[in-house]
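INTERNAL AUDIT FORM
Audit reference: QA-55
Scope: verify that the stored structure record matches its stored sequence.
Auditor: D.O.
Record contents follow.
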Amino acid sequence: MRGSLISKYNVAGPRYTSYPTVPYWNNATFSLAEWKNGVIKSFSESNANEGISLYIHLPFCESLCTFCGCNKRITKNHGVETPYLESVLKEWRLYIEILPERPIIKELHLGGGTPTFFSAENLRLLLKGIFHGATMAKNPSFSFEGHPNNTSQAHLQTLFDCGFTRVSYGVQDYNPTVQKAIHRIQPFENVKKATEAARNLGYTSVGHDIIFGLPFQKKEHVIHTIEKTKELMPDRIAFYSYAHVPWIKGNGQRGFKEEDLPTAIEKRDMYETGKQMLEDSGYVEIGMDHFALKTDSLYKAVEEKKLHRNFMGYTDSKTQLMLGLGVSAIGDSWYSFGQNVKNVEEYQELVSQNILPVYRGHILTAEDLIIRRHILNLMCRMETSWDERSLQFDELPETLEKLKEMENDGLVKISDKKLQITEKGRHYVRNVCMAFDLLLQQSKPETQLFSMTI
């Protein structure tokens, strides 16, 4: 039965860090002027009581990890640091100029690339520049992605002094064969040292990222990786399914063959084994792909029904406005999405001309906003309802009809005004969301745009 469900539901589908998903953005109705209007509107509605979020993309890496689908620039030339950060701060000043009052920063995340490619001193100057024009919220949520091989004591201390209390380390897998295939060689001792250093400084949440479904990976490798991870008991664990998307230009996912990857059934077995091991160790599954100890703020957000999902993934705090700074970064005003250009030189050139480097986006329609709320509910709470008029939409009967088969398979429960994803159906949450995704239903892609759901 399990194998037949995997065969049935293992289709290409979005991870739903947004709705509409990026391939379905309507760029024809989008403009930089509309994006600015949405930013100002959202800021005016939310800054005083929520603050805003910032995502800063730091794209540089010294070497290419072949599992990574992120936008990055491979270089060992650290002379790129200062010019790039100057452009980021210039972009930030362009936003400051259009905002009606001083922003309050509630949430800030440094992603990449490898944020710890940058020196501790340059990161300090970046954050000093950010807060020159902004106020830090009373209880901020600041985090960064650290590479265990190069996250130094100076990095950790500098960012901690700037208000950072959370770090996530990319572990992926501890097996040498797998590490060689994905070009990410890092011994357990490096992860242990980086984890303990963060805790000793006072970081309240240390996370580890583990990936299943990597090339040459076996179930015993996942078991070994989780056994080693349990020795450190990170506060959060992101237990991701490897997203194989080699058609995305420049992502490096062509360093191995398709036959080197585990099958869907093998991946599912890895997930179920890993999930059971984590739960036996005291971790609670949060939304999709995430696990947390009950002492962590992500678990508390679930308990208080405050869990949120955006382009940074799951977060324990919500802001209506998120601005993305840096090359390829995506912003979200709730009413619209806007993404920066993906080329470093083009990004720097536009910013030097006092132009916000947003090159595409989407203005959400009234229907988009309704569907967005349903998908957020499903991704964050594993349920949604339509008892309120504001959550009803014309295609709801057809959507529920599409979900009948999933109900027959025991993956969801549908009542008069509510849908719940069962424990059995948690791993198929992306498939459930796809039934609500009107744009996907109306225009099925002719070529593969997304990774497989399992």
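Auditor finding: record pair retrieved intact. Residues 1-20+365-454 form a domain with the Arc Repressor Mutant, subunit A fold (CATH 1.10.10.920).
Action required: none
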